[in-house]
Fold each of these.
Amino acid sequence: MDTLLLSRIQFGANISFHILFPTITIALGWVLLFFRFRFARTGAQQWMDAYMFWVKVFALSFALGVVSGITMSFQFGTNWPGFMETVGNVAGPLLAYEVLTAFFLEAVFLGIMLFGARRVPTWLHLTATFLVAFGTTMSAFWIIVLNSWMHTPQGYELRDGIVHATDWWAIIFNPSLPYRLTHMLLASGLTVAFLIAGVAAFRRLIGDRAKTTATQLRVGLGLAALLIPLQIVAGDMHGLNTLEHQPAKVAAMEANWDTGPNVPLVLFALPDEDTRSNRAEIAIPNGASLILTHRLDGIVPGLNDFVAEDGTVLHPPVAPVFYGFRIMVGTGFAMLALSWLGMILIWRRGVDHLPRPYLMAATAMTFSGWLATLSGWYVTEIGRQPWLVTGVLSTKQAVGDVAAPLVMTTLIAYLAVYALLLAAYIAVIFHLARRAAAGKTPAREEPRQAPVGAIPAE
Amino acid sequence: MMTLDATTLPMIFATLMGVSILLYVILDGFDLGVGLLFPFATPTERDRMIASIGPFWDANETWLVLAIGLLLVAFPAAHGTILTALYLPVAIMLIGLILRGVAFEFRAKAPLSQKPNWDRAFFAGSLMTALSQGFMLGMYIMGLDWTGGHALFALLTAGALAVAYSFIGAAWTILKTDGVLQAKAVTWARGGIWGLVLGMGSVSLATPLVSPRIFDKWFSFPEILTLAPLPLISAALIGLLWYALRHLPTASDRFAWFPFVAATGLMCLGFAGMAYSFYPFIVPEKLTIYEAASSPESLRIILYGTCVVLPVILGYTVLAYTIFRGKATSLSYD
């Protein structure tokens, strides 16, 4: 494998590992604020129990997000020096604002949020919780501004091959930003909804009848049932936006080779770039035309339009985009089914009488948000290839001159660390759930002992 | 009135970046130092050492993100050159930072039987981070050329920085704890001060010797007179430290703050000397800050945000340190 491919896999591995944790912390911050407010309003213990349990998961996820995020900012330099050299004038300020407005806000108030409840007044603790949630969301905003600009760049001019910013308003509110941001924030909400519901269902399964598990099931499933229809609409709008600005990506998502009307919706196929056709195709006639143009005979772009006269392929690799899209959509519909079925069951039978198979299904879907989020990001990022910044900078131009074996070495090291940490993370969440179920409530589990060591007379 | 143009802006950003690096080295330095001292502490002492840095480490590490972010956004050309040249040590540092950062959380939340493993990961992560940062410092001083001699020098600075971090970590522990642990930290600091003298001394001597340009900057008249306070104050601080460590811990805990403040002072002095040596170069002997800087329009945009946000950041950093002042007690989420 060459340096370009290895660097891409390495960046992909790093950013995939990283995004798992912000996806949780962005929405979990707001959910924690909600738990905290409900406790302040009602005084009911189950809300505090929920807060105490999930604040630990928040702290853990936050730590993993921070350390894996640091890796990202270094990777720009170590592996992709061409990126900042070419588009640094745009990417730089956006990244700087991310660090300045968001990162510090989170990092500093996190200490007060986690450990300061007894040291600061309630209003300050609530404010700290709010600022952490707000900071996480702002962090997502700036990063998605930059990412969206890389997909649909505007507000710049090229001088001697270097991008110079001309209109910051146009750069920030570039055409794909509203859709991508909405799609990602909803994805975060759904990830957290299924995480909370899944862990609560697991606690029920192992015999935890505490009131807080019922509350958490209701909150998790209710949030999921509320957000998933919104997400389907937002996803559809994002797709239409992509059709307008990045037609090659949509052609790859649909595995459609020839531009034309009455394009079928391919449910399954084995896209083959050598023969430039699909094998084993199962399709619904006119489906893609209907979804993308809302007309049976609407024109849908085909991949063959994105091949240069000399044979250079200017569209993304088809198979990963095609499959990634199907995994994301499939997971989305499974989420719809589980959450709405759950709502009906809770309404008809009550949250305490959810059948075991249902609880097992909810537990199995604990991390379904991760699956959908990752596959969605693969669709959009691989779908941008061969460009790093659409029409401005190709991925190949940006890669750094590092020896392939060296990249291979660090890639293996990163993968080993990530696999270990991911396993530990999931194990710890279920360990915490078992401990909570065994009656050791999070509040009691860390003993309030006197400072260790003899204190000299003062 | 100073105008914000292609001469002043790179200087402003170089200063901001320098301050971020300095703050990082001091603040995360004591976090990493505490990690490096882990093998010498008992399991209960470790809990208390973790508690002393728990509320801060995350924000401390963020100064590194700001520093590398400023390098990235303000000096994009230098960012690529420096980081590709330091590819391997950077990767080792990143893995170290990951292990160190997650160990904080895992050691408290994983099953008790796994705690010793996460303690080991905490130490290993701190060690990897400290050594690779020291190594990068050495390679940077040597102009980022990979030769056997330069790598040897970089190994020396790697050891020196690890010792310096352990020293400030021990000083922090003296400040934030009491009793047996505090007394133990004093002995750690007594052991570390020799390494500190050796490390700072060798780096200070080697830097002018490898670069005639830096030699001229220091040893010509009248610069040598204006610069003289730097080594003199350093020597005085080390003398005072040595004296203080012989008399600590005191009965009423007076002067427990002194080792930490003195270590901070030493790091500031060392950093000032280094900054003076390298200015105006950002990639030693190859690229000046003026050549590497982004366009003035982009720098101005970043500067406006920085001017608004930096005072706020400093303000609530002080707030966090005020809330968690005093001796460290066990941390809990309520």
Amino acid sequence: MAIELKGVTKRYGATTALDKVSVSFGGGIVYGLLGANGAGKTTMMNVITNRIFADSGEVLIDGERAPGSDRALGKVYMMAEANLFPDSMKVEPAFRLTRSFYPGFDMDYALSVAKRFELPLKKKVKSLSTGYASIFRLTLALAVGTPYDIFDEPVLGLDAQHRDLFYRLLMERAADTEQTVILSTHLIQEAASLISHAVIIHSGRILRDMDTAALTGAAYQVSGPAAAVDAYCAGRHVLNANSLGGLKTACVEGEPEGEAPAGLEFAGMDLQDYFISLMNEADRREAK
Amino acid sequence: MKFAAIFKYRMRDCLISGGVVMLVMVALTVLSYFGIVTFGGYEESADGVTESYATMNFTMPYVIFMFVLGIVSIREDMRLGIQNGAGRTTSFMANLACMVLTALLLNLSCIVFYKLWALLDTDLVIIDLYSMAFLREMTPGTLGEMLLCALTGTAASLAFTGCGVMLSLVYWRLNKAGKWIFSLALGAAFVLFINAATSFDWLAGAVTAFFVWVVKAPLNMNVTFLALAAAFYAIARAVTLKNPITAAAA
């Protein structure tokens, strides 16, 4: 049981937003869909939810073709950046309306989440600030109870306290309901502890699709005097390197072999470090 | 499930807005009546007998209302549907079902109002499209005539609703340049057609013959309106098959 994309391509004029993408989301875990601006994350999520059509390839939801199928599409809820509710609609009626579409929508939970975020229920959706508009949409997504929940930049405009609250609620919800969650965010460091599996996309292509622990364990940092680091890195696959004065830090793919040579230090990489290194390497390759 | 949810939401909206339009029309009718009482009505002499009256028309306001409803409701329903896991066909069909029911209810309700108004026996006569085209007295007398009035009004409303839905979706689908080209092309086609109709006798004759055929029998008129509605909705449906569903511009 999963959302499967098979050879999905989507072009906008001369730009290829998705290039023969094949990826699968399932298993009741939290996926991090990571990529730079314009990498194709939102396009992928829009293709999954049939907001747009792929030029080729197919999208299957639990084995059923998604476009045009209420049953398949009804298993996925997407919290997008854009609001698709009518402008005149108020927050609480929007909750009730969503419940009429999704029998699993938990109204009590939605109201309790709204209360914790101090979301004004009587206000029109259109008149909410950027932060509260995000809260409105993430409240719906948290309460909807579909097997697959997609969050596209869920913390846009949220202050640190509300972001923390959202991450805690998402973690609780994902654990309680066994939903498969796709979380697309630029705030990788903040969301890293939630993400079990990372899908990294660049220029419409999947660069990595791995368990987060395996991904961050697949590279390490070596730092020390520039000459020593260069000597160490010779013959190794360097993802990224930064110099400051006479010191250098390099991100090397693979696992360190034994102890660090004299004068050098090894350190593990977190998801954000790995992501940045990978993006820099991808950019360099493209520039060549 | 998804169809019912969209249908319920849209129908509630249609009943409220339709009810407001109905109330406005009733209010205008009453105001028109007091206008006649105060200032007098239109006088006409026929066979030596002078008649003093005024007319009120419900069909055209309803047709315009349905045209606007078609324009504003379809994008909203497509967005609402896709946000809540409904396929494009489901959203489109739910909107269509609401439009048909709203048009029918509006036209049926105004027949009831015609009848109630007729009981007052005033100089203000409410007429409608069917009565104007096919009844000598300009008001329906029998139940059958009343139902035909409602049917013709509904068919006319649907033709204009379909036009509104189609235009809304086509403009949604087109980019900025496309919107300009389409708009100019529509205007140009209209102007060219009018010029061609006045320049070529055979075309003028064909257009005249068509309109004569339309008003020859209620069936012809209803078939024409329903054929137009079907054509507009077919184009609209074709547009929804592939158009991206985007949020409303801020």
Amino acid sequence: MHNFTPYSALIGGALIGLAAALMLLLSGRIAGVSGIVGSLLRPAWGDWGWRLAFVAGLVVAPLLVQWATDKPVSINIDSNLAVLVSAGLLVGFGTSLGSGCTSGHGVCGISRLSPRSILATVVFMAAGAATVYVMRHVVG
Amino acid sequence: MRSVVIAFIAGTLFGLGLTISRMIDPAKVLGFLDVAGEWDASLALVMVAALVVMSLAYRLAAGRSAPFFAEKFQVPTRRDITSRLVGGAALFGIGWGLVGLCPGPAISGLGLGLPQLAQFVLAMLAGMAIHRFWFLRKGSH
């Protein structure tokens, strides 16, 4: 596992946990990204401000890191447009149907031992691993 | 206004966590999902650290009747296992495995100027909208 980065993983994970903890303890909200974004598509006007602010914070963060370290944040994607669009549709539809993603089910749900979130996380991790297996070791 | 400031700070911390842990890079996430290849366990540690912090937060929340700056806790209470939950998670997992992007990292990287991220996020929003109109038409949710 020469790609294994345990320290940055633990620090980054703790920051994600801290972000979710602040949302819960200060605002009483779940920091589930698919839920926060998905509800922006609904016409509940009074509810938009904090959702947009959360999204703005998400977008600003890597720019802050680039500015502070003076190095570009590297993102590697080699998928073509058809795969990107298919994946985006599946992620959007799937997280709406399944009421959550990696943050909502994986972090916020599992930490309060929600049976729905534990099952959802097992299912999407297994489906993700199966898909990568097929893409890299069967088709690829 | 206070909820907006809190959400901005939390979103920024969340994005910093994704960037520092490198989960903002789909190649890193695919390394975790590729259990038959050169497996990278980093994402598991990201989850463990986040879960430890968040578990403590629930402990603190359990001792309070309301959050510090809001009227009530809005935490999901459903416990029923449904085909929508399982099917939705499976579809999400397939999409996640295709590119290595889930909603948080995809949106967090939008300011970095990669057209692929914008294409993915637009399709993701379309997927959410399709779900919404599908269930509106069926008259249920």
